[in-house]
Structures are given as C-alpha cells and as structure tokens.
Design goal:
The protein has 380 residues and is of the alpha/beta class. The chain has 2 domains: 246 residues, 3-Layer(aba) Sandwich (Aspartate Aminotransferase, domain 2); 122 residues, Aspartate Aminotransferase, domain 1 (Alpha-Beta Complex), CATH 3.90.1150.10. It is built from 13 helices and 14 strands. The longest helix is centred in the C-terminal third of the chain and has 19 residues. It is globular, with a radius of gyration of 21 Å.
Amino acid sequence: MKQIPMLDLKLEYEYMKEDIDAAIKECLGHQRWILGPEVKELEERIAKHIGVKHCIGTSSGTEALVLSMRALAIKLKGQEYFDKTDEIITTSFTFTATGDAILRAGATPVFVDIDPETYNINIDKIREHLTRSGKVVGIIPVHLYGQACNMDEIMKIAKEHNLFVIEDVAQAFGGIWNSKKLGSIGSTGAFSFFPSKNLGGFGDGGMLATNDDEIEELARMIIKHGGKDKYNVDHIGYNARLDTLQAAILLVKFKYVEEFNERRRKIAQFYNEGLKDVEGIILGKTLPEAQHVYHQYTIRILDGKRDKVQKHLKDKGISTMIYYPVPLHKMRVFESRMKVSGGLKESEEATKEVLSLPMEPLLEVKDLEIVIQEIKRALV
C-alpha cells in the first residue's frame, strides 16, 4: 500500500542534499561549534528577510518566547521575572509551549477564545478581557497553522493599553500581514526551527526577532548564562544558544523556504478545489490581508465523524494529525496557574473537529488526489 506522509523530511533532504552536505562539511572544517560564523550569518539574513534590526538565534522556539518575556520583564519592571499578578493574554488553542513560556517567565496566562473560521485569537475577546482587568501587561498572538492573526487590531489594542506584543511565529515563517512579514510587527517575534516547521533544522532551534536595541542586548546576555562576560553575569540566564551546525543547515534550507511556501499554497489551493463541495466539511478561512504559509492544512469534520475519517485515512496509508486534541486550559499544568476569560467554547469545539492533512511541499498531484478521494469515501 502506498504511504502518504504528513511530511517527508528524507525526501526534502534528498532535494537539497548537495548543499546541506557541503554546509556540514564546512563546519567540520572550522570546528567552531559554539556561536560559529553560521549563527551570525543566519541571524543577519533572517533579520533582513523579515525586516527587523535584530535576530538572536536560540536553542528552540520555546526559549525564544521565554527570552522575549524575560527581557521585557527586565526592561519594563526592572526585575528578572514578571509577577503572578501580571497577566498575558493568549489563546488556549495552541501548542503547550505558548502557555508554558508565560509560566516560566513568572506571569499568569489568560486564555481567551478563538475565531472559529481562522482558529486564531478572537480580537473581540481580547477587548472584553481588558474591560474586566487592569493587570494585563501583554498579548501573545499565535499565527496558527501559518495563518496571520489580525495584527493591525492587536497592535491598536496594545497601543491603547500600553501592552507589549510577542508574536508566536512558530508555525508561520514567511507569513505576511498587510505587506509586513510576521515576527516583525510586535515587540518581538518568536520563531521555531523544529524539524517539521516551514523552515526547520535537523534538531531543535529558534530565533527571537526585534527592533528594540535593549531587548536584543538583554536577550543576548540571557542566552549565554546571563551576562556579556560568562564569568561575571548580570541576570539569571540560560544556556539557550542556537547550535552552529543547526544554523549551517538552516542557511541552506532558508534558500528554499519561499519556494516551499509557494508549493504549500498550491497544495492548499488543490485541497480547497477538491473539498469545497464536500458535505460535512468546513474549510479554513484565509483573511484577505494575510498571506498564508500553510504549515498545516486543516479542515473541520462535522457531526462527530472526525475520528472515523482519520481512521479510514490511516487504513489507506494516509497520515493525518490533530492539532490540537487538548486545549491548554484543560491541561493539568495550567489548572491553578491560569485565568480563563469569557468561556472557551470555540476552542473546545475545534479540538473535536479539526484534522490536518498531508502538507509535504514535494507531494505529487496524484497523492493529493488520493487524499481527497479517500476523504469523500470516508464521509459516504
């Protein structure tokens, strides 16, 4: 039976093998494994690409979020961490790292509901919470599945209430909102280079983007144990640097990221055409101001049939994933450490209905046709 994977990293490696092997060989030659020249080059290239003054390589996307908040706490409050009374608004329909990073930075996550059409944070729910609380210090919008949040409205709210904004761009490298690259609009942008991301390495990695000179300086200290001089530090720090070898691989894959994002958009268009008239399915909505990069192509399957469809596809050799089966506010780690604002009905409904389909940029049309055909069969 032919297998159709969600992603085929081996296939992608073969596509750019010569360049990747040469980059690894270069590292073997210079042996500068900690903050080698490839790290600086990657930082500079991505900063130019997204249009910010500074990019700081980190050991993961999670650390990029934590570093953003740690630097902001030092800048805004003159202390290493936020207080539990400090609230940061975000979505519950995201990966654990978004909420966990808020806890690690000392603050309290406030979960508000999503827009059921885009799966992104509901702007009206942000405003509603701000009418009830005067303790909010920031907002973390998550550009879920590669789809941009409404950053115009979020930045307007932030300006009105003097809040910071940290863009969680883990799934949206190359995405655009109103001609601006995601990660360049907020106080900081946090990127993940986990292998499955649109720009992914051969292990963990991430990046913090900012136009703020002070945040850049603080973040560079915190990733290196907390100081400019590692033997005489100023802040509570981490060992959270981006690995040189990962940077070298990412520099190669960076050359292909726009090509691959365009391939993803074409796959999404093919799915849209093939599934648009299928009863019992709701397709995702793309806002006209956004350029989607389809880290995931996610549909909703109604009437409690999602699990049945997923099983049918699995039996036919087609991989799918549920992002996400459990919203953050239902997780034990957040039980006594969060606030829920206004109810999270849409987030909870989404966990029961969403299904992400294969989104390998190098998939052939015949594979996509099989996916569509089997979805239709499963719903008969």
